[in-house]
Amino acid sequence: MTSILVSSNDKTITTDIAKQLAEKLDYTHLGEQFLEDVAQKYNTTDEKLQKALNWLISAKLLSNKSIDLHLAYIQEAVLERFLTDNVVCEGLGAHLYIKDISHILNVRILTENSDLKNNRLDDKSGYLKNFRKIIDKTNFIRTGSSNNIFIYDENDSSFYDIALNLEKIGLENIVDTITTMAKNRKFKPMTYSRKMLKDLILASKLRVLLLPRFIDFQVETKDGTAIVTIKCTKRQKAKIAGEIKVIANAIPDIKFVEVHAVLKLSPLFKNSTT
Amino acid sequence: MAVITISRGSYSMGREIAERVAKRLGYECISREVLLEASDKYNVSKNKLEKALQESPSLMEKLTHDKAHYVFYIQSMLVKHVAKDNVLYHGFAGHLFLKKIPHVLKVRIIADIENRIDVLAKRENVTKVKALSMIKKIDQQRRKWTNRLYRADPWDPVLYDLLIKIHKYDIDDAVELICHSISLDHFKTTPESKRKMDDLVLATRCKTALINSFPDIFVVSDYGNILIYSNTTETNVRKIKKLADDFASAKKTVNSIEIHNNVSPPDNAI
């Protein structure tokens, strides 16, 4: 069955639509309440996970190790749920790290940012123009974080399978449209799409294990082979590769580990997690 | 009854989708026709008009306003067509030319970069590397054009009502989705939306009457009241008023003319 990712600039709208979709399709709604389960799984707190999610939408550019680790927890837990459940997911940043999985419908709801609406002033004052600049800047920073965690521009239309204007199409029609699309045979899980999802999950699991020890790396997995690209010198590579392989042994589905040492990480490649 | 604009990235099967939607709905399907008509009516070569739609104006062109004129000519032809209703336009900038008209469904068709490369490589018989370079150049040109003339990013989803990424759907699915969306109440022509379209037509005609003498004016019409925004001397303002009054006397639908000098025009001014 298709799973659905819903995102927009307005959290309330996203949650509302996701809940309605989940009810209509009899799917599991995965929202911020899922953080409790994640906290339990990784023996951490709701607050730290929430802080990591909030960092995604904050104006701060630099994250820290704790934020990276907690985002990795969220990523791994969310991806695993996609494998087992029919899910409508929102508010967990999933639209940023789940890409190119054909049975997952990635939907963007186009709406004016609610903060902008609530603080609308007479444009002659120039305040609105400046406020828009701040919102735009926030979105840019949110998507261009340090450590190359999420480098996709979430305002880039090519990022989504479909985008729908809320004001024009209306909430009810949006829910109907997405429900109809979810039943399209093109969004049925196929062997290859489930395999791609499993590869993503494996990569995220490895990332969770590597993060306490390393920073500045990317992980990609394919057919049981993990490819870790890490920022280090060639001199350090042998030692680091050894450590990574020991850590990766804890994941039974990873058969082989390749380690590449680079001086600078390049942008994310397909189906990798960082 | 409504109007559809389909904006398509290069090599994204948008044309085929547009033609099928138009056929299914019984709409008039227009694209390059507006350019050809503008070329005939305003006596400007097709090449110049095409260039005006593809390349952003250079510094010299900004001073002479040539490209802005050519873009306006094409816009005026498009407005003339869509005023009839039940029209589908696919091509450049329809979503920008008709942005404040409520019963216009603005659709964007996008394709994965890999698919676009495949289509272009096969069509032009070039390597994939070359195809990628060509696509990037086209995308960059379009981005620049939209930014320079409309201060917008063509990839910004807020410019559209519906975006469809084509590789996940059959063309039939995309057609179905568009036909379903256009049937929604919001896109039906109402007296209010018809009024806005009539105002746009009036503003376009007024600007056509003035543009040769005063290239950098902006015009908006609201309930038949024409507002002209200029940035010029008082002498020229009087000349604009005279020309506008001549236009108004020939058109019974004009209620009044106002000229605002050194005032920023609103978003919907053309």
Written overview of the protein:
The complex is a heterodimer of chains A (274) and B (270). Chain A is 48% helix and 16% strand. In chain A, strand 6 and strand 7 (225-231) form a beta hairpin. By secondary structure, chain A is α/β, with parallel strands linked by helices. Chain B is of the alpha/beta class and 270 residues long. The radius of gyration of chain B is 20 Å and the shape is globular. The two termini of chain B are 25 Å apart. In chain B, helix 3 (46-54) crosses helix 5. Chain B is 53% helix and 15% strand. Classes of the chains: A alpha/beta (274), B alpha/beta (270). Chains A and B meet through strand 5 and helix 9 of A and strand 4, strand 5 and helix 9 of B. Strand 5 of chain A pairs antiparallel with strand 5 (162-165) of chain B.
Radius of gyration of chain B: 20 Å
Count of alpha/pi helices of chain A: 11
> Radius of gyration of chain A from the CA trace?
19 Å
What is the arithmetic mean of pLDDT of chain B?
86
Percent of residues of chain B in beta strands?
A: 15-25%
By DSSP, the count of extended strands of chain A is: 9
Strand order of the largest sheet of chain A: 2-3-1-4-5
Treating each run of at least 4 consecutive H or I residues as one helix, how many helices of chain B? Answer: 11
**What does the main sheet of chain B amount to?**
5 strands, parallel
Averaged pLDDT of chain A:
79
Query: From N to C, what is the helix and strand string of chain B?
Result: EHEHHHHEHEHHEHHEEHE
- Main sheet overview of chain A: 5 strands, parallel
Give the amount of beta strand of chain A, in percent.
15-25%
Which regions of chain A are unreliable across 5 or more consecutive residues at pLDDT < 50? 114-151, 269-274
Q: Structural class of the helices, strands and pairings of chain A?
A: alpha/beta
- Helix fraction of chain A, binned, reads 40-55%
Q: What kind of oligomer do you see?
A: heterodimer
Largest interface: A-B, 23 and 26 residues
* Low-pLDDT stretches of chain B: none
- Global geometry of chain B: globular
